[in-house]
Amino acid sequence: MTKATPQMQRLAAGLYFIATPIGAARDITLRALDILASADVLAAEDTRTLRHLMEIHGVSLGDRPLVAYHEHNNDAALPRLMRAIAEGKSVAYASEAGTPLISDPGFQLGRAAIADGYPVLSAPGASAVLCALTVSGLPSDRFMFAGFPPAAKGARETFIRELAQVQATVILYESPKRVKQLLDDLVQGLGEGRKSVVCRELTKRFEEISRGTLGELAAAFDGRAVKGEIVVLIDRAPEQAADAATVEQALDQALTHMTMKDAAAAVAQAYGLARRDVYQLALKRAGA
């Protein structure tokens, strides 16, 4: 067990964001433990999770307040925390796991503190986004975190369409119950040949990294019961998309010896296009 030594010097008034482990408890930083031991007020997305983490590392809560702060109690909790800072107290906020503000309700708290002119500081640490990018093998010079895709089918299709030409590695969070459907939708929207990675339970006992094309991953997860935290990464769009004339020519040639469905799939994969879009083009050309 790691023992934290509280800082002797009192923390200055302000808001302190603390990154917490996404799996392995020892991934907390020493500075984060110092802040947890020294802050006047502690706030957390899940107070039970923070209490447990502090117990593991020997950090005593003592008589300090521990405030639950999440999207469902923002109207009540935010003013309370802001009053504490106004009274000259230090407030430390920890997300349930990972870096605050990344798919986390701390954004409103941070914005309010900045608007009122209070110091806002961060103790950086674990992040599922950066952890997944590091192990993915996909380009890391430019990436885009797009959060959770919409659950509704129509909204999700629009969401994926908007990602089709992003010139960066795209990183998504997804529920384990919907990961197979997401992979199928990504195949339809982005083409089955795009390189992708599915990370499950990062830093935990049953950590699993699955790499391949979208088509291969969709097949690998077919009929599989999936549990745990999921991060999906998708390679950037091809830098030079084929012009319309080139695609039409390739499609016409493919249609001479393939069914419309197979021709659309082959051309979509060859040029990194959405299979649905190429199939609609084939229908138009067939009816011309």
From TrEMBL:
- Which residues are in the Tetrapyrrole methylase domain? 15-218
Tree of life domain: Bacteria
Domain annotation RsmI HTH: ranges = 241-285
CDD domains tied to this protein = RsmI
Ordered alphabetically, the record's keywords are: Cytoplasm, Methyltransferase, rRNA processing, S-adenosyl-L-methionine, Transferase
Q: Does the keyword Cytoplasm apply?
A: yes
Q: Which GO terms describe its cellular component?
A: cytoplasm
Task: Show the catalytic activity.
Answer: cytidine(1402) in 16S rRNA + S-adenosyl-L-methionine = 2'-O-methylcytidine(1402) in 16S rRNA + S-adenosyl-L-homocysteine + H(+)
Gene3D superfamilies recorded for this chain?
Answer: Cobalt-precorrin-4 Transmethylase, Domain 1, Methyltransferase, Cobalt-precorrin-4 Transmethylase, Domain 2
Alphabetized GO MF terms = rRNA (cytosine-2'-O-)-methyltransferase activity
Localization: Cytoplasm
For this protein, the Enzyme Commission number is: 2.1.1.198
Q: Outline what the protein does.
A: Catalyzes the 2'-O-methylation of the ribose of cytidine 1402 (C1402) in 16S rRNA.
Similarity annotation: Belongs to the methyltransferase superfamily. RsmI family.
Q: What is this protein called?
A: Ribosomal RNA small subunit methyltransferase I
What species does this protein belong to? Cypionkella aquatica
